[in-house]
Specification:
Number of strands: 26
Structural class: mainly beta
CATH architecture: 6 Propeller
Strand content: 25-35%
CATH class: Mainly Beta
CATH topology: Neuraminidase
Strand order of the largest sheet: 3-26-25-24
């Protein structure tokens, strides 16, 4: 039996507040039924998991701590989970200070700039982008009532403190300068549906260079080249120069080398290598700067979000094996951690447990790791941002 989890991105568009755009948003959302959190190809037996005895009956899968996993949980069990050492951590309680009548919706994206200011992308009744200072005090809202605020999917800040908003409903990546003015738009929002309800736009392979179909993330290399994860309907990474001119793209739907099954996150290291998080089949696919396939990491679960520490010096990769947002607590036995890794895929440790309390993870959709050993998360189910302080050992990348 194949168990499919319907992506959280299917539900939110029905709450859109743009009367004139409801039809288009609903049509776009229908396409998400193509995707599932379950790894491609159905059930997979985790390393050290169940074996089929002679006679055909399948033995139960035993997870960490000796718990028996349901088949759905077993399919989500990362290979590295049991042997990855725990990283000690603490949560900064009640970190965000929102003013009266300003509310968080689903926590979708988080990023910070060179001043330590924090930017949050949230799917509330209206998509909103908030800025806070380094102490969590509210400063301002960016892009209020923008034409690109349709269906949020993330926010990033580049090396020059420009703020980039990923909006899958507008099929656009919007670049705001530090003052909060839009200065570059990649992609284009679908226009008014003059003919009423229109069919969802289908996957195109190859996709047109400048037309996205529910993009998910953005990253840059040291030269300022832009890498867009166009991942919900299309299955590609598209590379542009710093002026927005198309250079190259890679990817198609599948689980082979250079393919993706829901490309949900992207990150670029100091050498220009590109890491694409293929969520539904639990892989991180690695390319060089020219988008030539290099390798794959398939041992740390479903990469809902990726973050590479900026340096200078040694860089680390964080990936969130988030507990699915259907709130099935049985799946918490195999998911809900953030892994810390070397860039070659070596796991240094993990931290976090799923749950609704402060200090627990409630479906992490965004990670920021700009400050060493300080991790910011945005979470879907509990509508929040959290700040964590890590205390890694020397073997886990900490100071001696």
């Amino acid at each position: 039996m194949i168990l499919c989890y319907i992506s959280h991105r299917f539900e939110v568009p029905m709450k859109r507040r743009f009367t004139y755009g409801v039809a288009a948003a609903l049509a776009l959302s229908a396409a998400v039924t193509l995707f599932a959190q379950t790894p491609s190809g159905g059930a997979q037996t985790p390393t050290g998991g169940a074996q089929t005895p002679t006679g055909g009956a399948q033995a139960p899968v035993i997870g960490p701590g000796g718990v028996v996993l349901t088949p759905a949980a077993a399919r989500l069990l990362p290979k590295a989970l049991e042997k990855a050492p725990d990283i000690k951590y603490e949560v900064v309680r009640d970190f965000l200070k929102l003013p009266p009548n300003v509310y968080m919706g689903e926590g979708i994206g988080v990023a910070s700039n060179s001043k330590g200011h924090i930017f949050v992308n949230t799917c509330a009744q209206q998509t909103r982008n908030f800025e806070f200072d380094q102490n969590g005090k509210f400063i301002r809202e960016i892009g209020k009532d923008s034409y690109g605020n349709v269906f949020c999917h993330g926010i990033r800040v580049d090396a020059e403190d420009n703020i980039w908003v990923i909006d899958e409903g507008a099929n656009s990546i919007i670049k705001y300068n530090p003052q909060g003015r839009a200065i570059m738009i990649l992609g284009r929002r679908i226009g008014f549906p003059y003919n009423g309800m229109e069919p969802a736009v289908k996957e195109l392979n190859p996709a047109p260079p400048y037309i996205f179909n529910r993009p998910t993330d953005v990253a840059w290399d040291a030269a300022g080249n832009i890498f867009v994860a166009d991942g919900y309907v299309n299955s590609r990474i598209a590379k542009y120069d710093k002026y927005g001119k198309f250079i190259k793209q890679v990817g198609s739907r599948g689980s082979g080398p250079g393919q993706f099954s829901l490309l949900h996150a992207i990150a670029v290291d100091a050498q220009g290598n590109v890491y694409g998080g293929s969520r539904s089949d639990q892989r991180i696919v690695v390319f060089d700067n020219d988008l030539n396939y290099k390798t794959v990491f398939d041992h740390v679960g479903a990469p809902w979000s990726l973050c590479i520490t900026p340096g200078p010096g040694h860089q680390y990769l964080y990936t969130s094996n988030s507990n699915p947002d259907n709130q099935d607590t049985e799946l918490h036995k195999a998911s809900g951690q953030i892994f810390k890794m070397e860039l070659d895929g070596t796991v240094l440790g993990k931290f976090g447990v799923p749950g609704k309390e402060q200090g627990q993870f409630s479906t992490v959709h965004g990670i920021d790791c700009r400050v060493p050993n300080e991790i910011l998360t945005t979470e879907i189910v509990e509508w929040r941002l959290q700040k964590f302080i890590l205390h890694p050992t020397a073997a886990q990348g900490g100071t001696k």
